[in-house]
Request: fold
Amino acid sequence: MTCLPALPAGCSGASWRPRLAVPARKEEIFASGREACGAALALALACDRLLNPSDEASAPQRDERSWLWVQDRAAMRLGGRPYVPGLPVRLRHRLIHVAAEKPQDALFALEEGLRCLGLAFVIGEIAGNPRALNFTASRRLAVAAERHGVPLFLVRIDAERDPGAARMRWAVQSAASPPPRWNLQAPGVPSWRAELFRARVHRPGEWILRDDGGSLIASVRPAAAPDHDVVAGQSGDRSLAGQAGAK
Amino acid sequence: MTLWLANLAIDRWRGRLAPNERHGADATPLALIGETAHGPRIEAVNAAGLGAGAEAGMMLADARALCPQIATAPADPAGDLAFLETFALWAQRWGPWSALDPPDGVLVDVTGVAHLFGGEATLLAEARRLLAGRGLAVRAAIAPTAGAAWALAHFGTCSGREQAILPADEDAAMRLADLPVAALRLDGDVLLVLRRLGLRRIGDLTRIGRDALQRRFRSRHSPAANPLVRLDQLLGRVPEPLLPVMAVEAPLVLRRLLEPLRHRGLLDRVVTELASDMARELEGRGQGARRLELGLWRVDGDVLLRRLELAAATRDPAHMTRLLAEKLGDVEAGFGIELVRLRASWTQPLPLTQSGFEATGEDHGTSLAACMDRLIVRLGEQAVRRPLPHASHLPERAQRWHPPFEAACAVQDELAFHARPLKLLDRAEPITVLYATPDGLPRRFRWRGQLHEVVRAEGPERIAPEWWRERSTARLRDYYRVEDEAGRRYWLYRLGLAGDGRGGMPQWFLHGLCA
Reply:
């Protein structure tokens, strides 16, 4: 286990690492319905972004905005609802939860949330591959997230990796936790094996991620990912919102 | 100041007549009658009727026997009350607030006001003059307390001399001692009891002492049934809250349509215009709407009402239009809608803000309140909620769902060393577990058809049932935090102990998914 070397922030084609300065955008996380690691990684990424703002000067001293967690009915049946005592301490009192009956309603709630200035970030959980969540819907969400600057973490539970407009797409599953300090028989700090399999500016890769009191810690997996450095660097990053606005 | 409209019903009846008939109206006996189960009963009579022997409360048949030529007209108690309400507002010309004293009186607070009219006597004279001009018989009185003013207005002239004003520095008990006990505003049965006891005047009550009255009426708590409370109110020893009459005007805009509407597109346009009218109306008052009522009057005499509540006061016409449009999906136009009315039945002060600086929400985002409104209107109130901690040991009761803007009340937090799962299943799912009996750690479990090999486990954390709200047979729970061979973390519990005498072997449940 070695920590990644520091890279210049936002450099094109660079490998992803925690606390990277990124603009708000849509990220998709594919996870199994038998575990809560999808939502957990989404929360960890959001915390990582919120508590370590990229721009120290413009960031408010204490962000007290609410955040939205949207679940459709199938996702709630598979994985249950958020539980306040188990949420991160700095986020638990600001949660607004939307229990949507159908995936269409969940998509509506997600888009409304993304357009709202009073929300810090939005987490969506949608089970399977509903027909409503096609490429158009996915792109609508991505455009809204970039235009209004509200990050969206869309957790796809038990879903196929269909084409989508997310800037970063993760596949996550739980990983064995490091042994805690005192009780070696107990489960330790939650760890996830996260694979970044599609990203515009970053090299795809696989990490063991761990949430350590509000900031992510990444360790490299021994098996290195294939090198897509050149392709990613050429395509570069462009703003979806800017493009949509120019139309 | 109390204004008692002694002949309100008759005065209103006379006021409705043509001017040339008014003079002759009192010459013949007349009774206003109300229908009862035993036939028509007289509610009010005029002076000529009184002279002929008719009285209020008499059956009409009895009055006819005394005075065959008595004329009748229907009484209108609801109209009298409505008149009294507007009259109470009108009477605020003499004081900052007024209260109703049904069925025929009004109380006006004239504290510190009389000097504007040249003293209390002049004020009373002006009130009498104005009311005489309106054709209303009035008895008015001014006193330091509402009870004393009422007593003076109703019974002030009984003792022969005029005593309509009770100055604050005079002894009220002495001045009012000669008035009959009915001046205390008591119920009929209490008056009967007092009369049988031989207590006729207010002075008699003060003479027999408080203890006797207290003992006799100790089970009566309503002021109208307890002479002691009324006496204290009369003398100002206990407070007497009055309900003031306030004129409230709800902002209202409407459109009468030349041609009845039958299509949704036109209706949407009318609603948009109404919303901008309403926004202008609200802006003029410096208020924002919290509740909106949209009324649609149909040609065939049907009325459709749509009601809307907003999370925060607003007067944004686009926002109102969008929310109202959601409510118009199921409108049956029938033969057409001829009148559309929008009313803000609940408003709150909303200061004027600079607009235009921040363009529409489409470009620059919406506020949190607007976002919540849209979500609630589309998804329902039950779908958009905020979980807040609740004081309970049981995990599923430790959080409750509240409306999105409700603040958390202070409860004790979970202890820091209690690890809780990230997500809790709506209902704990039964699982089969291999474990070392009677209370060892779980080794292996099957959940939703798949086997999990437990690699690491922590527990038990014992949570006892809440005996103050559950039955005595409720079993305790032993919670375990486990991690399986793939690193997946769960929160399991065993319900009960083997041999606790509350059921058979313990059952196992999976309750939550850890991060």
